[in-house]
Design a protein that fits this description.
The chain is of the alpha+beta class and 99 residues long. The protein has a single domain, classed as CheC-like (Chemotaxis protein chec, 3-Layer(aba) Sandwich), CATH 3.40.1550.10. The protein contains 2 helices and 3 strands; from the N terminus they run βααββ. The protein has helices at residues 7-17, 28-51, and strands at 2-5, 76-86, 89-98. It has a 3-stranded antiparallel β-sheet with strand order 1-3-2. Strand 2 and strand 3 (89-98) form a beta hairpin. The longest helix has 24 residues, at 28-51.
């Protein structure tokens, strides 16, 4: 799974995770918080799928930071889910499945 979005959107999420404390940059602590969010989402999804009798393997999250990044999922299917935080902050959660 990977998230796409503007840095400002990730800063808003990390600020919320830290009780509303101001966050101005994506340093090591902030990047760790985003990775932990991905872990929580994947863990909850895995629990749901397991209850439905679906067995999946997941990998630890990888955080990729930068501009104009292109990701290619050759021989894989991608489920893209838009997440609207508010009118100014949008994210895209992408779940990659091996074919």
């Amino acid at each position: 799974m990977y998230f796409g979005g503007a840095v400002s959107s990730f800063l808003q999420i990390v600020s919320s995770m830290m009780g509303g404390a101001p966050v101005t940059a994506l340093g090591a602590l902030e990047q760790s918080a985003i990775s932990e969010l991905a872990n929580m989402i994947c863990g909850n999804a895995m629990s749901f799928f397991s209850q439905e009798g679906i067995s999946l393997d997941i990998t630890p999250p990888t955080l990729i930071v930068g501009n104009q990044i292109e990701i290619s999922a050759v021989k894989m299917s991608v489920l893209s889910i838009p997440i609207i935080l508010d009118k100014n902050h949008l994210l895209e959660m992408n779940i990659v499945f091996e074919d």
